[in-house]
Design a protein that fits this description.
By secondary structure, this protein is mainly α. About 90% of the residues lie in helices and about 0% in strands. About 25% of the residues are buried.
Length: about 110
């Protein structure tokens, strides 16, 4: 759970900064910073729980990059969808989804 909380704090900070820079609107930036990381934090928690299953642990044994890649796919999908729904802008949704990829590989590979 500590890892999930740490992930949330970092994600909220990065999300607000990037959303504000992209939109120039403090209210919209704040809304994105609250909703998108909240949804991704829940997704991260369940992603970690799923990877604790025996079947996925066996799959991970040979290639730890699979866990990182699967979370990246979850993150990008959630980030794009949430931001697109809040802004109606495909470009902003895409940029927000791509804004912090390396952060996730650092967090999902170390247990």
């Amino acid at each position: 759970m500590k890892k999930t909380v740490s992930f949330a704090v970092i994600h909220f900070t990065v999300a607000f900064t990037v959303a504000f820079v992209l939109t120039g609107d403090i209210l919209l930036g704040s809304l994105i910073a609250m909703v998108e990381p909240m949804v991704n934090t829940v997704a991260f928690y369940f992603h970690e729980k799923a990877w604790e299953s025996k079947m996925l642990k066996n799959a991970l044994r040979g290639n730890p990059g699979r866990k990182t890649a699967s979370f990246a796919a979850v993150h990008f999908s959630v980030a794009f969808t949430v931001v697109y729904l809040l802004t109606g802008d495909i470009l902003v949704g895409s940029l927000m989804a791509m804004r912090s990829g390396p952060q996730f590989s650092d967090m999902t590979l170390s247990d």
